[in-house]
Design a protein that fits this description.
The chain is an alpha/beta fold. The protein has 8 helices and 11 strands. A hairpin with a 3-residue loop joins strand 10 and strand 11. Helix 2 runs parallel beside helix 3 and helix 6 crosses helix 8.
Length: 241
């Protein structure tokens, strides 16, 4: 069954180019030319990925992303933006977008990111199906002091209480906690968690994801105990001593 990509973009020439190239790569496409129509299609048609422009009539991309994430926690969202301001990109990531691509973009790069994000979701779904425990089965866990990760149910617990994490936040803490004490650069995290092979572009998405994760995991996000920074090197999970 073909994967479906929803394109939410008000410039018809861009929609046509994206639709043509995605179809050529074997995807089905849905198109919306304003934010309200895009949000409705995203919620009703359950696409495998959403390409979402920021500047849209009726409802902007920020509002669409916020509303979509309130209903759907896992479908990948890639934001398309002509803006260069860092605050816009960070805001999109804060609202739940998986990444952003700045116009004008390379079609090769965009297709690679679409493929990587859809594949990542497939892998996670397959893993969940294979590891879902039955009544008598053992549940695989990662336990690091006050943090416990149920890898079957894909739930993270702190002091026995479940944390409300997005799929990306779960993937990030699971990856780091599985190898406590090991430092991973932003580029490596982009490759291993975001699944972008040979990623050499903007890695601010990693910093935003770490900051959001700390807000949910740490007692004091400004003085983290679990997810630490090694300046100039990257991030690590501080395991149980």
């Amino acid at each position: 069954m073909k994967k479906r990509v929803l394109i939410v973009e008000d410039e018809k020439n861009i929609v046509d180019i994206l639709s043509f190239n995605l179809t050529k790569e074997g995807y089905e496409t849905l198109e919306a030319y304003d934010g309200e129509a895009g949000l409705q299609l995203a919620l009703e048609q359950h696409p495998d990925l959403v390409l979402l422009d920021l500047m849209l009539p009726k409802k902007n991309g920020f509002d669409v992303c916020r509303a979509f994430r309130e209903k759907d926690r896992s479908t990948p969202v890639l934001m398309l933006t002509a803006r260069e301001e860092e605050t816009d990109k960070v805001m999109g990531l804060e609202l739940g977008a998986d990444d952003y691509i700045t116009k004008p973009f390379s079609m090769r790069e965009l297709l690679a990111r679409v493929k990587a994000n859809i594949r990542r979701t497939e892998v996670l779904q397959d893993a969940a199906a294979q590891t879902a425990p039955g009544p008598q089965e053992h549940v695989d866990q990662i336990v690091q002091g006050r943090i416990r990760i149920d890898t079957g149910a894909m739930v993270v617990y702190k002091d026995g209480m479940p944390l409300d994490l997005t799929q990306r936040e779960y993937e990030l803490i699971r990856f780091l906690a599985a190898q406590p004490g090991k430092v991973f650069s932003r580029e490596v995290l982009m490759e291993r968690v975001w699944n972008y092979e040979g990623y050499v572009g903007d890695v601010r998405a990693v910093d935003v994801a770490v900051r959001r994760l700390r807000e949910k995991v740490e007692d004091d996000p400004a003085s983290p105990q679990f997810i630490l920074t090694r300046r100039g090197l990257g991030y690590l999970f501080h395991g149980e001593e």
